[in-house]
Amino acid sequence: MKKYTFTEKKDTRSGFGAGMQVLGQTNPNVVALCADLIGSLKLDAFIKENPERFFQTGIAEANMVGIAAGLTIGGKIPFATTFANFGTGRVYDQIRQSVAYSNKNVKIACSHAGLTLGEDGATHQILEDIGLMKMLPGMTVINPCDFNQTKAATIAVAEYEGPVYLRFGRPVVPVFTPADQKFEIGKAWMVNEGTDVSIFATGHLVWEAIQAGEILAEKGINAEIINIHTIKPLDVEAVLASVKKTGCAVSAEEHQVNGGLGDSIAQVLVQHHYVPLEYVGVNDSFGESGTPAQLMEKYGLNAASIVEKALKAIERKNA
Amino acid sequence: MEISELQKVASQVRRDIVRQVHACQSGHPGGSLGCTDLLVGLYFDQMTLKSDESGKRVFDMNGTGEDLFFLSNGHISPVFYSVLARSGYFPVAELATFRKLNSRLQGHPTTHEHLEGIRIASGSLGQGLSVSIGAAQAKKLNNDNSLVFCLMGDGEQNEGQVWEAAMYAPHHKVDNLVAFIDLNGQQIDGPTEKVMNNRDLGAKYEAFGWKVITMQGNDMADVVSVLNQARELSGNGQPIMVLMYTEMGAGVDFMMGSHKWHGVAPNDEQLAAALAQLPETLGDY
């Protein structure tokens, strides 16, 4: 098992803010909108340095998405930002018609996705956003795993022409990917090469997958860990190459199992190369209030769950 | 353009509307006929639009340096398609494909089929004012002093997003935006005052901070004059709202004054009766 260490913990939303600051300095067409959550989205530096390129919409997300679509007509690259719950589910039709169907170069960039939003509870903990966004034709869906990857992804999506959903979160988590990484949309990142089971993880679950890989290694199991930061378009080649080697798989995401990353992988497996797949995700349930760590444990979104599912996938393979 | 010339264009556009809707036996003739004079006044008189050296209309999505129009109530696509074709964006003959399989003229306007002149999909109501605000703010960032126009329906004022946009535009001093509400008093289920009473829209928009003016939307001379007035009022720190009084079905007597013709196509006899009231001025497609 390849060794991953970290010297600090940071929130992925701060990675977004850092990426936006870079874009403010390097790409004059980048503009930002926010629905009364500047601090939460870490936009302070971008706004301070580019006040004329920031649009405060107030608590009016539908209007924000429409304005973002309009700003692209004139060559701007708008980042429409808020919490993931309000930036996707609340404004699904606005994104569908004015952004996706109209093929506008809008970046829907959302923080506080998933259970790790914590104490605010289920009203704010969206676990359906990946599914909602990936169903839209032409929409790219990205869920980076740490500060550095989120920063790199933010810069990369500005260079890409087309609608993107960029999903990140609230809590501080280990920073373990390189600061100088080049982010390639749609290209999976090989975290650890292995032979016994493929673990496909996205977002906050990537670090948990690494922890799971170390536990499995102690049991003599050599897990292949792949970071699927781009859920759509999925790196089908990487998925198939891995499962052809390992013969079984686990998906891990901070999202409903219905319609998330695991289902995207399952589609590939049943069509091209069937192997047993076990899901780590929320099973048809809303979240609740609690600390992020408590919630991830209660809902089975941690290293221990990934280990358990990996063992089950291997057992099914060998049955 | 002279008022009489604009009226001739409007007559032809109205023919195009009823013929499009008749040919596919679907679509929305009532609101299209009511808004014909506005769209003709905009595209044939008021708006500065790009052409190449030979005078041929050219379309680019960004629309830098030219006025832009957004149709928020996308169901009145027949009038939009006719006016775009008649002003040179695409061949008039293409109107024959309206709402048919493999057409660029979808039931509701879309950029998806790359139809020249269309910059946003609309149909799901309440979104166009927001989009227009964004386009207007992009113009300001680009130091482009042309205008953005946006047409909405009065039934559409039921949508909450409209009021989010109504609050935003004056707050951000989007004063290069001229919006219109087609006040025909009708929506699908009946008169607006019975379905969902908008009450005093002018007072509402004024309270939100808009400069509100009125237009007799089926009087071409008033349309031209109020459009000029709106341009003069732009650039003064306030967005401009034009309350446009129209008659649903204007120009075809038996389609006027009722919500019945909101989304119903004429049969062969009704088509003939409608065309008899609308002189062919530019040649049918």
From TrEMBL, chain A:
Pfam families: Transket_pyr, Transketolase_C. Residues 10-175 form the Transketolase-like pyrimidine-binding domain. PANTHER family: PYRUVATE DEHYDROGENASE E1 COMPONENT (PTHR43825), TRANSKETOLASE-LIKE PYRIMIDINE-BINDING DOMAIN-CONTAINING PROTEIN (PTHR43825:SF1). This is Transketolase C-terminal domain-containing protein.
UniProtKB/TrEMBL annotation, chain B:
The keyword Chloroplast does not apply. Coiled coil: none annotated. Keywords: Thiamine pyrophosphate. InterPro entries: THDP-binding, Transketolase_N. Its cofactor is thiamine diphosphate. Residues 7-274 form the Transketolase N-terminal domain. Belongs to the transketolase family. This is Transketolase.
